[in-house]
């Protein structure tokens, strides 16, 4: 079994170096490690050094230099549409709040087929039509290009936003009050200890 530790992105893939192909759904294309069998029977041990997402047309470089091309497998999805763009925007926000992966198109959203999600979609006045196509959700980065750090970065960014807001409001306000209190305390102490009667008020 040959190890694959390097990703070659689609623009750099040389057709003459491709030895086999792998058809993977989005979850499989998001893995760092695992054992895979390519279409031609080639056994591959995936061993990437960081979280990333393999896109359709990318390739894995094997330790012997050959490439295995990645094909994004069609998946059961819901195509979400609305005549009112604001509804789609609101729905996209709700999906993100519920950590539901979504692919954002020019006129539609695509989510994995799920009865609960379908109910949420229709509850917002949008339509949900079953379709079969490759799933390319926003890389929680944002979706963050986020090909090399995608989910981790987004998750950290989310945690940072939450933690920073809380920590900043609490810590800053507390620190500011404390500093102001110290300033006032020293000032009062100075006036008390170095009043005009002590002869050093001018220096103070």
Average of the residue pLDDT scores: 79
What's the total number of strands?
Answer: 10
Order of helices and strands: EEHEEEEEHEEHEH
CATH superfamily of the domain at 2-72: Urease metallochaperone UreE, N-terminal domain
Number of helices: 4
Computed structural class:
alpha+beta
Percent in helix: 25-40%
What CATH architecture label of the domain at 2-72 applies? Sandwich
- How much of the residues is beta strand, in percent? 25-35%
Overview of this protein structure:
It is found in: Cytoplasm. One of its GO terms (biological process) is urea metabolic process. GO terms for molecular function: nickel cation binding; unfolded protein binding. Among the domains are: 2-72, HSP40/DNAj peptide-binding domain (Sandwich), CATH 2.60.260.20; 74-134, Alpha-Beta Plaits. The chain is built from 4 helices and 10 strands; from the N terminus they run ββαβββββαββαβα. The protein has helices at residues 26-29, 85-97, 115-123, 150-193, and strands at residues 2-8, 18-24, 33-37, 43-47, 59-62, 67-72, 74-81, 103-104, 109-112, 127-134. The protein has a 6-stranded mixed sheet. The radius of gyration is 28 Å and the shape is elongated.
